[in-house]
C-alpha cells in the first residue's frame, strides 16, 4: 500500500510502521505512530488512496494515541496483535508488558533496576506466596510458558495451539486486572526494596 501513495512522508511512515510491527520494536513504534498521527492531522491531501485509507489509518494510529508508558503500549499492542490473529507477537508483548510495568514502578521510585531482577521478583516465592500477587504470579507464568512454547515452535506436548488462540482474550483481561488495575503493585518498592530482590 505505501507504494500507491505519492505523499512520501505518509508513505514512508506507513512502511516504517509495518516493518516495526513485524519486528516488535516498541520505542520506534511509538515515535512512528506519533509521526503518522501528526501527518494525518496536518495534511489535507487530495490523493484518492489517502482519502480512502485515512479512516483506517486514523483508527489504527488513534488506538495508540495518548499512551505514555512503554508497558501500556506493549499491552495495547498485545491487544491489537490478538485482534488481528498475530498471536506470537501478542504473547511476546503481553509477557513483556508485565515485566515493563513493574520495572516502571521501581524506576518511578528512582531505582535503576535491571529487568532480569524484575523477572526474578515475579517468578520468586515473593509473588508465589503473597496473597496480593499470587494471581499475577500464576497468570504471568501461564503466558510466559505459552510465549516460550511458541518461540520454540510448539514442541511442548502439553500445549494446544487452539487453546492458546482461544484463551488470548482471557489472558488480556487478567493481565489488565492483575497488573494495570492493581494498586497493590505501586507499593512493591516499599515492600520489596531493590536491594532485596
Describe this structure in words.
With 197 residues, this protein is mainly alpha-helical. It starts with 7 loop residues before the first helix and ends in a 6-residue tail after the last helix. The radius of gyration is 19 Å and the shape is globular. It has two domains: 2-62, no CATH class; 70-196, no CATH class. It has helices at 8-23, 26-42, 48-62, 70-83, 87-108, 115-123, 125-128, 134-151, 161-166, 168-180, 188-191. The protein is built from eleven helices and no strands.
- The overall average pLDDT, rounded, is 85
Structural class: mainly alpha
Strand residue content: under 5%
Helix content: over 70%
Given the C-alpha coordinates, what overall shape results?
A: globular
Q: What tags apply to this protein structure?
A:
single chain, 197 residues, mainly alpha, 11 helices
In short:
Helix content is 70%, strand content 0%. It has 197 residues and is mostly helical.
Which SSEs are present, and which pair or pack?
Elements: H1 8-23, H2 26-42, H3 48-62, H4 70-83, H5 87-108, H6 115-123, H7 125-128, H8 134-151, H9 161-166, H10 168-180, H11 188-191
Helix pairs in contact: 1-2, 2-3, 4-5, 4-10, 5-6, 5-8, 5-10, 8-10
Amino acid at each position: 500500500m505505501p507504494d500507491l501513495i505519492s505523499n512520501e512522508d505518509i508513505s514512508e511512515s506507513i512502511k516504517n510502521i509495518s516493518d516495526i510491527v513485524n519486528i516488535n520494536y516498541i520505542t520506534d513504534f511509538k515515535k512512528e505512530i506519533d509521526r503518522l498521527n501528526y501527518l494525518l492531522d496536518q495534511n489535507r491531501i487530495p490523493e484518492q488512496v489517502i482519502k480512502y485509507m485515512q479512516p483506517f489509518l486514523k483508527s489504527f494510529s488513534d488506538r495508540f494515541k495518548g499512551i505514555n508508558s512503554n508497558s501500556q503500549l506493549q499491552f495495547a499492542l498485545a491487544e491489537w496483535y490478538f485482534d488481528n490473529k498475530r498471536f506470537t507477537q501478542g504473547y511476546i508483548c503481553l509477557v513483556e508488558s508485565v515485566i515493563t510495568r513493574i520495572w516502571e514502578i521501581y524506576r518511578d521510585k528512582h531505582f535503576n533496576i535491571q529487568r532480569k531482577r524484575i523477572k526474578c521478583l515475579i517468578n520468586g516465592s515473593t509473588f508465589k506466596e503473597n496473597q496480593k500477587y499470587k494471581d499475577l504470579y500464576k497468570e504471568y507464568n501461564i503466558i510466559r510458558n505459552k510465549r516460550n512454547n511458541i518461540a520454540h515452535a510448539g514442541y511442548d506436548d502439553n500445549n494446544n495451539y487452539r487453546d492458546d488462540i482461544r484463551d488470548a482474550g482471557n489472558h488480556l483481561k487478567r493481565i489488565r486486572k492483575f497488573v494495570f488495575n492493581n494498586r497493590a503493585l505501586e507499593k512493591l518498592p516499599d515492600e520489596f526494596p531493590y536491594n532485596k530482590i
